[in-house]
Amino acid sequence: MDFVDLEQALSLERFGRYMAWANGDRARAIALYTLNTQLSESLYTPLQMLEVALRNRIHAVMHEAYHETWFQDETIILKPRQIEQVGMAVADIEFDKKDVTPGRIVAALTFSFWTTMFGPDYETLWQQTLHGIARRPDGKGLRRKDFSGPLHPVRTIRNRIAHHEPILNWNLRKHYGNIVTMTEWLSPVAATWCRTHCRFEAIYPQERIVLHEPE
Predict the structure, then answer these.
(1) 12 CB neighbour count, 10 Å cutoff
(2) pTM of the complete model
(3) Which long-range contacts (CB under 8 A, 24 or more apart) does 40-45 make?
(4) Residue 135 to residues 51, 139, 144, 181, 187, Cα–Cα distance (Å)
(5) Please, what is the angle between helix 26-65 and helix 188-197, to 10°?
């Protein structure tokens, strides 16, 4: 393999992180870049299911408790950024010359919109309504923080994968476990689907991934 040509394709700045982790060993850097790509690909499956299950459960519960367009109700949606995100979703649907339906808006809203629903400003909504989106396998209820805690790093990892950024320095086994656990709270059958089709366990090395950290 022509390492120089590959480095140029990746950009020296991007590849530099892997070279540092490999302590200057180009073959090792390529291997780390390849592993990062494979793990990113494998995490797409559970991340997709978590996001879809999360938004659909929230919408189902909120629709039943309030009304179908609850996400446009400023007595419910408390964060200005979320209101902007709804407007952007509507604009994107109109740009595509499609009918603006609640279902299309729900599908167009970003993961950020949905994870914000677990912020401290929504504690009252959680206690009154949102707690109905999920249950533990033993039937016990969940706290808002049971979602907000693991969702924050999961959203960061999701965004890093979307922008082709390195994720090898994250505790991916822990976060993968959190993704599947939260999915199971929302929908046990969705979690089973994830375990059946996700390749993360097969790809993640059994031994610790060693990354050199320059002093």
Answers:
(1) 9
(2) 0.93
(3) 40/161, 40/164, 40/167, 41/199, 42/198, 42/199, 42/200, 42/202, 42/203, 42/204, 43/157, 43/161, 43/167, 43/172, 43/176, 43/179, 43/198, 43/200, 44/161, 45/194, 45/197, 45/198, 45/199, 45/200
(4) 17, 6, 12, 11, 9
(5) 160
Q: Which two three-digit tokens encode residue 175? A: 């976060």
Q: What is the pLDDT tens value at each position of the chain, 215 positions in all?
A: 566 677 777 776 778 899 999 999 988 999 999 999 999 999 999 999 999 999 999 999 999 999 999 999 999 999 999 999 999 999 999 999 999 999 999 999 999 999 999 999 999 999 999 999 999 999 999 999 999 999 999 999 999 999 999 999 999 999 999 999 999 999 999 999 999 999 999 999 999 899 998 76
Q: Can you tell me the distance from the alpha carbon of 158 to that of 125, in angstroms, rounded to the nearest whole number? A: 26
- Contact predicate 124/140, CB 8 Å: no
Q: Phi and psi for 193 in degrees, rounded to 5?
A: -60, -45
Q: How far apart are the first and last CA of the chain?
A: 30
- Measured CA to CA, the distance from residue 193 to residue 30 in angstroms comes to 32
